[in-house]
Amino acid sequence: MRIAGKGLVDRQAPVSFRFDGHTYQGFAGDTLASALLANDIRVVARSFKYHRPRGVMGAGSEEANALVTIGSGAAQDPNVRATVQEIYEGLEARPQNCWPSLTVDLLSVNDLAAPFLGAGFYYKTFMWPRAFWEKLYEPVIRRSAGLGALSHQHNPDAYEKAFAFCDLLVIGGGPAGLIAALTAARAGADVILADEDSLFGGRLNGDVETVGGMPGAEWAQSIVDELEAMPNVRLMRRTTVTGAYDQGTYGALERVAHHLADRGGQPLECFWRIVARRAILCAGAIERPIAFRNNDRPGIMTASAVRTYLNRYGVAPGRRITLFANNDDAHRTARDLVDAGVHIAAVFDSRRDVPESNAYPIYRGAEVCNTSGRRGLESVTFRTASGEDKVETDCLAVSGGWNPSLHLTCHMNGRPQWSEAIQSFVPVEGMVPGLDTAGACRGTLTTHGALQEGVAAAQVALEALGIAFDKIDIPEAEDAPYRVSPLWAVAGKGRAWLDFQNDVTVKDVKQAAKENFASVEHMKRYTTQGMSPDQGKNSNVAALAVLADATGRGIPETGTTTFRPPFVPVSIAAMGAGAQGAGFAPQRFTTSHAASVERGAPMIEAGLWYRPSYFPAPGETTWRQSCDREVNMVRNAVGVCDVSTLGKIDIQGPDAGAFLDFVYTNMFSTLKVGRTRYGLMLREDGTVMDDGTTARLGETHFVMTTTTAAAGPVMRHLEYVHQCLCPELDVSMISVTEQWAQFAVAGPQSRALLNALVDEDINDDTWPFMGCGDIIIQGVRGRLFRISFSGEHAYEIAVPSRFGNGLFRELTARAEALGGGLYGMEALNVLRIEKGFITHAEIHGRVTAFDIGMERMVSQKKDCIGKTMSERPGLNGPEREQLVGLKPIGPVKQLTAGAHLFEKGAAPTRENAQGYTTSVGFSPTLDGFLGLGFLRNGRARHGEEVMMVDHLRNLTTRCKVCDPVFFDPEGGRVRG
Amino acid sequence: MRLTCPVCGERDRREFYYMGDAVALRRPDPEAGDAVWDDYLHNRDNPAGVTRDLWQHEGGCGAWIVVTRNTMTHEVLETALASDVKGSVG
Amino acid sequence: MRFSGWKVIKEGLTGNRGWSAHWRDAQPKPEYDMVIIGGGGHGLSTAYYLAKNHGMTNIAVLEKGYLGGGNVGRNTTIVRANYFLQGNSEFYSHSLKLWEGLEEDLNYNVMHSQRGLINLFHSDGQRDAFARRGNMMVNQGDDAILLDRDGVRKHLPYLDFEQTRFPIYGGLYHPRGGTARHDAVAWGYARGASDRGVDLVQNCEVTGIDIENGVVKGVQTTRGAIRAKKVGIIVAGRSGQVAAMAGRRLPIESHILQAFVTEGLKPVIDHVISFGMGHFYISQSDKGGLVFGGDLDFYASYAQRGNLPMKEHVMEAGMTLMPMIGKAKVLRSWGGIMDMTPDGSPIIDKMEGIDGLYIDCGWNYGGFKAVPASGWCMAHLMATDRPHEVAAKYRLDRFRTGIGIMDEEGTGSQHNLH
Questions:
Q1: Distance (Å) from the alpha carbon of B15 to chain C's nearest alpha carbon
Q2: What is the top-level taxon of the source organism (chain B) (predicted)?
Q3: Which domains occur in chain C, in start order?
């Protein structure tokens, strides 16, 4: 019911919205919760387990009951707190976790079955028959569990992430936060003030207290106005600081556009990483309920929420309101309601010493012990020394006291301490380095105290920051005592809720204790108390108190569970912003990318790079046709392939040779200028890390190539070896992978192709096999390497990247004129398999130099990384699986990679497994499948027949073991 | 988490690559024997408290850094260039 | 007390007054035949199988906090047997078989759910590596099916097959893979061990190991000295500290692994999905929360909490793989301390040179699924002084000798590469 003349909502701006299929009206400034209450909607949700009707319980982000689904279609947003969602024109909200409807929910039958569904019942049953778990029990449990539903469609909304930096981050914009921010801002500090509400002011907006002689909300607005005008202040509305992390890093979720009908291109949410030199937590406190029988009916709310709805939104959540409290603070709710002309039916206070009023009946030493009302509260039963009685009421405002919102202080494992004075936990100094606390979140529950502490905390921060500040006047404000007397659960039969969201009752906690889940962590895990969307914000302290009582310990001894980030639920889309679609990782394109795409080449991922798989020619319908043609082209004419993705590292300095001797197994200091050498690199553990060629371009100048996959790790490794193991070597290195475009020109016609392009005469004397050097190609200074990964007479030619596209097109045209053309990754793979050249399919991290037959490349004349460990007994010997070639010899001619090898006739079991295949391909050159693989003691078994078994692809092939070099074993072609 | 690169200043953790215990700086002699090498490469004090470990400012200047750090609290006590530390270790 | 559906109904009708403690909280005795240090999943299962398989009941499990408070209570609950190296393959296969009979054996519903695990691959090379893995799984007698892209689409139609940075080529489907309710595993073993006479002692921190002339004599604890003929160290991330009490260094570094859970949602993900390109894995709990995780934070730590970069990376992986989860909201994130070995495989062995001292550690980030077989094999080792045949390769000296290194990821048998 809306109360005339009350509240901060804009009565001139009506807003219509839909809930559960009906259209309602609210005002700008309303939340969905306040607007529903204004329309007398009481049932807004169904509970998790028992499907009991539930209404709005609070007025903040900790809301336990009023979770709804917003929107529909792909953008449907489940589990949204109605207390946080601001209404806008056309907002569509729906109830969730109910079927067929909110009012008639068939699963509310669970409520009747409650005796069988107590804490942990599922651990004790559903075990027989075994097969029923996956087929029957689990599907039923899964369907009845869960709250809202995802749309099952790709997220259609935009989200963002950002960084921010400041001297001081003030978390929470209530009185403490506002004055802390003001103090620091006036001193000149860079300040960020973040508050999760749409309006700064905190409780000042929900109360009718005055600050400095002004209504609290007006005072708050005046401070906001001053802060907003300052260039060193950033005000972040609708921004919840969600986590405290190391070295002053905070996560924060800004709800950018959830309140807008038209987002105007803005993202829905932005996840911030705020780096703050200092921070002050001013997060306030959360009022806690009291557990009593049937304390979960719609219409039962926290006392402060009732007050907020009245004062901020001009809404009375009932017409005959009752109050149940154990502290003075809650009586302000009754006072405000009476002042607004709302009828107070009764006030029950568990204490004897209670503030007087002649506006409503007060029952001292009274406890509410039951409630009734099927779809909302109709009456409460209360108990005093003189017995039980009943009062009709449609709204019960409950206050069990306040729990400081100290959650962020616990994010680094700090443990808060118990305060007898406020009967709750309060933060201890230094729990998060650089974070101070002020106001209610540190247990100071008056406005005056909050203001005082806000100033003090800001001054502490400014001193730490070395920023001078002036004295600031603290405005006068309310300083009434809070006076709480503990009351957690009202004794009696029936179910009294602690965790409303997970339907955990006092009985459940007691039962857990009885079953020896007596540690607070065990109780939580057994009952699921505190594991619901509010993460125990409403229930932890009371549940702990009930557990302490049940186990006969005090609350401090019982301890508390750990608060962990995030403080409020954070969407995966916000923290994962930017990754949807292709944004997950950078895309790297070679200079020939466009030309390759133009020719219809399917581009495949190679690490972060894209490389052409094959280049389809007219009439070709399968990749194999293209691949076979490209292989033949290289073997018989000339092929061109972009190899720029290989890592290129420029290494210079007088000690470059010595450095390379240390990182490679073989010698490089002896390499002549103008020559290239194949090098093998080990990890310190003796396994092969990478291989590649390194060219000596000058006395003190080398260029190393790495495999595409290992380019980054090798660069890092080289810097590690240099800086950490041998900084005395005078050598420098830098990655030049992206500075050079490099193309392989391979095949019998390769020299002819190049000679037509360059001025110099390329012949076996000027460019012998493994020769290298600078070369001018059509006026551009490039580099030419006579190296081959195909076994053919071949070169790699490199030019600065800006010439890559032009050179690639030129090479392509000339190759085609010579009966050749482009070849892609598939052909490259077949060519290298024919030659027994290895890639990371073979050097997959577990193989040693011995395994690939390169143990003699580990020079005995010097030390190198990995040498000592490579000599361990387990890394050598006939037990090792060694690189072999495989050829099919039976009726089945196919080979597959990833199959296992067995002795002829052996059962294909793990015990009998002797090796596996790593790379296979159809060789058009040799007209058959060829395979590389590893076989136990394989080098000694050339000529033997083994069985290749691929269970997954249902293939068994008889194979002959052979040398891995299938084609041109003498290597004549590469020199020819 | 933030670390101070001695060259570039304070930076976010995501700019750094982590390698592990700074014991890696003390590479044994090749002939030191398998027990010494086993210890060097595999066995760790793995302290629950102050440790020194190696990081690289990979997303920045490329410097390898010895970070003195607390593994219980993630407090960073000191950072130094690995090449300087190695120089003083010998 | 035997648990059953009838018992739940009977208790429900009589006010649930008949339930009793799932396990006894024991006071430590001055002497035991064996002491297990660590009341996590592995320690509790070791005690259970010592009692059940070997008739050893004069034993105590000493836990410094509460039972099941370590990694068994903070993981992503995945149970699978999809290893491909000799040594791992037979061990995890054995473990999965134990899982399949666990509820009956323990009379405790650990909600082992064989909903199927799909490991996605994104290149021909990855497909071949997964084929090798799957073939070894079949060699071992376990189940594996190689799915192509359409095969994956049939199971997981909601993945992003069109826009994603790393297109899905296919997946390795392990139908017997799945999940279990992690806490219940610890409690079920605790109850089983306690019922067989094992003393479970909580809030009892071991502060020293008594060794005389190379022979274990007992332990010092915050609740007094306890004599024992044999002592097993089963403390996961704390292995280094406890081994140091025996003067030993271990090939272990402790690292943080974070995990995440969302609010309860109606059923949306029916499998366990693993996305290698993003180090991301996800399943949905029976309560409806999406449970997911990623890679290590990558720095040595005992803090049981992580930092933003890896959190964001994990969510980014989720968004590129399955953008339908964008509006699921993360409720909680936590970190476990992973006992990382150089090769990523565990250790179940005697402590060489100290009679009566045994160690079970190095579970890296895969310890949960190993809980049954780890306990089974550690119990076998402690009771018989011989390694169990499926755990014979989990030797401590493999790093020194290089014999039997099990580097499933192929990243090298050095620290911080896994």
A1: 10
A2: Bacteria
A3: 25-113+177-251+342-418 (3.50.50.60), 114-176+254-340 (3.30.9.10)
Distance CA A357, CA A121 (A): 48
Band the pLDDT of C163: cuts 50, 70, 90. Answer: confident
Q: Which domains does chain A have, with CATH numbers?
A: 1-152 (3.10.20.440), 159-285+404-465 (3.50.50.60), 289-400 (3.50.50.60), 492-561 (1.10.10.1100), 595-645+739-832 (3.30.1360.120), 647-735 (3.30.70.1400), 877-975 (2.40.30.110)
Q: Which two tokens stand for residue C201?
A: 């002692």
Is the Cβ pair C307, B1 closer than 8 Å? yes
Q: Which chains neighbour B (Cβ–Cβ under 8 Å, 3 or more pairs)?
A: A, C
pLDDT at residue B87 tops 90: no
Question: For residue B89, what pLDDT is reported?
Answer: 57
- Nearest chain C CA: its distance from A622 CA (Å): 17
Quick check: B51 and C414 CB within 8 A?
Answer: no
CB contact under 8 A, B42 and C342: yes
Supply the DSSP string of chain B, one letter for each residue.
Answer: -EEEETTTEEEEGGG-EEEEEGGGGSPPPTTS-HHHHHHHHT-B---SSEEEEEEE-TTTT--EEEEEEETTT--EEEEEEHHHHHHHH-
Q: Nearest 5°: phi and psi at A272?
A: -100, 140
SS3 at position C284: strand
Residue by residue, DSSP assigns A893-950 as ----TT-EEEETT---SGGG--EEEEEEEEETTTTEEEEEEEEETGGGGTT-EEEEEE
Q: Which residues contact A337 (CB under 8 A, 6 or more apart)?
A: A306, A307, A310, A316, A321, A344
Pairing type for strands A300-302 and A395-399 reads parallel
Q: What is the pLDDT of residues A785-831, one digit of tens each?
A: 999 999 999 999 999 999 999 999 999 999 999 999 999 999 999 99
pLDDT tens for residues A885-923? 999 999 999 999 999 999 999 999 999 999 999 999 999
| Amino acid residing at A258 | H
Per the CB < 8 Å rule, is C412 touching A134?
Answer: no
A190: which residues sit within 8 A by CB, 6+ positions away?
A165, A166, A167, A168, A232, A233
Judging contacts by C-beta atoms under 8 Å, the chain C residues touching residue A954 are none
Residue in the structure block whose two tokens are 């039969």: A493
Please give the DSSP secondary-structure letter assigned to residue A793.
Answer: S
pTM recorded for the entire structure: 0.97
Which SS3 state, helix, strand or coil, does residue A428 take? coil
Nearest to B71 among C300, C401, C416 (CB): C300
Mutate to test the interface with B, among A682, A724, A865, A875 (most CBs of B within 10 A): A724
d(CA A566, CA C330): 7
Measure C50 CA to nearest chain A CA, in Å.
23
- Per-residue pLDDT, averaged over C160-177, amounts to 95
Chain B closest CA to C282's CA: distance in Å? 24
Residues of A in contact with B86 (CB under 8 A): 723-725, 727
A485 touches A350 (CB < 8 A): yes
What is the reported pLDDT for A562?
A: 86
The two beta strands, A424-426 and A701-706, are unpaired
Helices C367-384 and C41-54, packing angle to 10 deg: 40
CA distance C30 to chain B (A): 29
Topology (CATH) of B2-89: Folate-binding fold (3.30.2270)
Phi, psi for A882 (deg, rounded to 5): -115, 150
Using an 8 Å CB-CB cutoff, list chain B residues near C415.
Answer: 20-21, 42, 44
Is C254 in CB contact (< 8 Å) with chain B?
yes
Contacts of A525 (CB under 8 A, 6+ apart): A517, A531, C73, C183
Q: Residue B90: its pLDDT value, please?
A: 46
Angle at alpha carbon of residue A30, lines to A26 and A32, rounded to 5° = 80
